[in-house]
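User: Here's a chain of 399 residues. Predict its fold as tokens.
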Amino acid sequence: MRIAYCTNVRLPSERAHGHQIAQVCDALVQLGHDVTIFAPKRWNPVKEEYHSYYRSDARVKLHYLRAFDPNMHGISTGLPGLMFANWTTGCATRCALQTEPFDSAHGKQFDLLYTRAPALLGKLLQTGMPVVLELHQLPRFGLRRFARRCNKCAIVACLTSPMRDRLLELGVHPDRLIVEGDAVDLARFQNLPSREEARKALGVSTNRIVVGYVGRLKTLGMEKGVSHLLQALKKLQPFDSAHGKPEAKFFGLVVGGPDGDKQQYEAQARSLGLTEKDVRFTGEVSAHDVPAALAACDILAMPFPDLPHYRNHMSPLKMFEYMAANRVMITSDLPTVRDVLSEKTAVFCAPGDVQSLADALVFVANHSDEAKERAATARSLVERHTWLERMKRILSAAK
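Assistant: Prediction complete.
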């Protein structure tokens, strides 16, 4: 098939959505499809070219569109600027799609339009070509109109079951909806370094149990649980006694950025009395280096707080990377996580509860065989959650 991937974000992007788009498009071409990305041309702090930045498949084509760029203005244009940017991007996308040279063998420009941008959906449906919407977040406004548009799609692939359930309440036909979370490229996890090699590369030297958090430290300015992890590490430090302070059992490894957030959490760690012997902040690493960072850890933490975004919309890329790394996971107990994980594959804690997180860490430390069994089960399960398998299911549902 000829597939047009339509987006309203700048590419390449250092944010997770850019990496996710690259993975989806690579999977589509690896399944034998012809893929062209249509994206707005915007000012970009990332100066590297798309294919080299993501190490993307060279068969993916990229078509930049002329549209309003709110980043080119000296002052913030706010929500009106964002809405105007989306409108101009939608118009430019529709025009480009309808003027694309025909495929003479099939008599049409594209067999399928694919997007994760609800803001573009109206313009894409106007082309008359079949549309797949990969839904990462429900729009804040106009939900009834959005539901009507969903009913015109070939399929809506909701990242989470809470989003699917909400669309059902709004009147979207059940046969238009599937649930498909994010996924992982298992090739990135072949030939991982040993724990010792990975720790040496990150400057970690400790005999303690290494508890890792790997990924961006915040999402849209929202906490992702790093603060709770630091507090749990502090809570688990032994108290001074008349015979001196015994060695702590856990060491925190926080891998991620951006730098401003890293500095904030470093300051918090110092205020808690945590030193470099207790926690290390590496800053941001490239997506290529994430598997090695995960290999340095004994436990991987996803201590998300109980916020609407995490409860309803997220399908964290880090969850699938954690599963692929074959390390035991401690995760907040949220419906979006339960779409994939269970007590057979992870250890759960109450979201936002520092004591519950600390208890989970102690449980893993005291039940190492059970922890390894859960990690191994998660590693087997993630075979179903590769990008190739995911995209096969979505395209099959769209027929």
